[in-house]
Amino acid sequence: MANKALFGVVPRTSRETPATTTVNAAGGRAYDFTARHALAQIAATNCFNGTYYVDADSNLKIAKEAVAKLHNDPEFIAKVAVFSRSKGYMKDMPAYLTAVLATLDSKLFRKVFPKVIDNGKMLRNFVQIGRSGQAGKKLNMTARSIRGAICDWFENHTADFIFRASIGNDPTMRDILRMARPRPESGEKAALYAYLKGAEVKEGEYLTFHKDGSVRYRHSFDALPSIIKQYEGFKKSHAGEIPKVDFRMLDSILTKDEARKMWQAQARTAAWTMTRMNLNNFAKYGVFDSKELTEIVAKRLANREEILKARAYPYQLLMAYNATTNVPPVVRESLQDAMETALENVPAIEGPIYICVDTSGSMASPVTGYRAGATTSVRCLDVAALFAAAMLRKNKLAEVLLFDTSVHRVNVNPRDSVMTNAKLFARNGGGTDCSCALRDLNSRQAKGNSVIFISDNESWVDSGVHYGYRNGTGMLTEWNTFHARNPKSRLVCIDLTPRANSQLKDSDEILQVGGFGDAVFDVVASFIEHGSSSNHWVDMIEKTEL
After folding, report:
1. Beta bridge partners of 30
2. What are phi and psi of 356, to 5 degrees?
3. Are residues 439 and 528 in the same domain?
4. Mean pLDDT of successive 10-residue segments in the chain (546 residues)?
5. What is the DSSP annotation of 381-404?
6. Among positive and negative, which fits the CA dihedral 279, 282, 288, 291?
7. How far apart are CA 109 and CA 136, in angstroms?
8. Is 485 exposed, middle or buried (0-12, 13-18, 19+ CB in 10 A)?
């Protein structure tokens, strides 16, 4: 037999597959993204934590390299920061890009800051990143533009909001206040700032001092926001109603009975997100012993307006559903109802559609990366399976193909709940060959309007020459064959992990998009229904208002 490495059968296509330009983290052949596409992709996926193939330092390096190529285009960096926060609901990347803007364009920085730094957690992220020197250089946090932006943040939020946002360390709200020195020097906010900075209490007054020990300001206890007065009063006497503050402010001061009462009170009045995040605490502290409280919690979880207001991530609901095994069935059923609401914008696409789910070993990586003490239980595979189950629910002509180094078919009922089918799709193991799903479709001469891949994009098995792909990637070669048979078809590749390369080369019928959220569904639907340029993902970000 002749040498297959030299004389392997090359799949027949309608056009030549271009040569690859780089390799991915798994060592497979790949194509570089353009600078704009690389930043857009990374901003939608990078949480600066380690993934299956790449550690946290390497993910930071990927982001730095993408930003460095766009230093002469700060407006696009600004739009990516706003988009990744407002549409992708990311935290670390938009804060990082905002810090980068502070070094490039102070006017754009001031425009972007209030849109991205929208709560206390984001403010701490920004200050931490700015101080680290990783945004190009160590920021002077007392510089006029930066200090002004932070002071505006304090000015534009109520005293109650600032107090409730004061939880957290490295930096603390005390550190930020001492650094930014926001005004006023009298009234409710002045008293709040003195309280958060650790002012001493003497005879009903909060005192701050000059370095020489003399009194600088006196703030009456009565000037403090009422929630702080209630909180401080309860800390001293444990009398009266437990204050309605974040449980982390009370955790160390409550007795067991008080904690039980607190969680019962929280269950009665908590916001939707806190309810979703604390179902196990509700179970632990006996909330579900009360039929009334159980019904209140279940009703809130299924409330459509509350779900949309909370900007609920579908995978967050999946995580809650998987993690809450000790809650009443009616509460778990409400989580399923919430999932249906969170996915109501899933597009219905005409004609046959193939959804290819990567189930390889690397898809076991946490979707937000490995994080010491706080790694999410939601894997890339869980997100991919959830996406496939949601698409199957809305598209009667959809077919799901699970793949690793070969295709695995599974019988499903599209009418089953999204949660049920997501679990069915979440099988795992093996290497990665992104071309095998398209190769399977080509082997049976499949007809279709669209193909959607959801993967970590680390294909490597098909890089060997024995597959016959001696020039470009196997995925692009097989797609060219599929597209030649279905000339109106479009391919969407959803990437779940940060990278600056792909298995595909940009073209008008291919969309490459990063991340998982409502924005992805919108972009996918728009592209498949209307088509666009090869920069459709970047074009969507370009439309972001600053």
Report:
1. 22
2. -105, 115
3. yes
4. 43 67 86 88 78 75 87 93 86 92 94 95 93 81 90 93 90 92 80 81 59 64 83 84 82 86 89 91 93 96 89 78 87 90 76 90 79 71 86 85 90 80 80 92 93 90 65 89 93 87 87 77 79 73 87
5. HHHHHHHHHHHHHH-TTEEEEEES
6. negative
7. 15
8. middle
Does this model's pTM top 0.85? My answer is no
Q: Identify any residues that bridge with 452 across adjacent strands, giving them in sequence order.
A: 355, 492
Is the same domain home to 280 and 365? no
- Cα 93 to chain centroid distance, Å, stands at 10
One-letter amino acid for residue 515 of the chain: G
User: Of the candidates 308, 342, 376, which is a domain's last residue?
Assistant: 342
Residue 243 lies in a domain: no
**Residues 312 and 378 placed together within one structural domain of the fold:** no
The domain of 424 spans 348-542
What SS3 string covers 312-358? CCHHHHHHHHHHCCCCCHHHHHHHHHHHHHHCCCCCCCCCCEEEEEE
Among 342, 367, 383, identify where a domain stops: 342
H or E element in which residue 429 lies: none
Of how many residues is the chain composed? 546
Write out the two tokens for 360. 């390889």
Q: Taking a C-beta distance cutoff of 8 angstroms, is the pair 500, 32 a contact? A: yes
> Domain tally for the chain?
2
Q: For residue 523, give every residue at least 6 positions away whose Cβ sits within 8 Å of its Cβ, in sequence order, or none.
A: 511, 513, 536, 537, 540
Cα separation, 103 vs 71, in Å, equals 10
Residue pair 398/368 in contact by the 8 Å Cβ criterion: no
**Bridge-partner residues for 206, per DSSP?**
201, 219
How far apart CA 185 and CA 189 sit, in angstroms, is: 8
> Are 401 and 530 in a shared domain?
yes
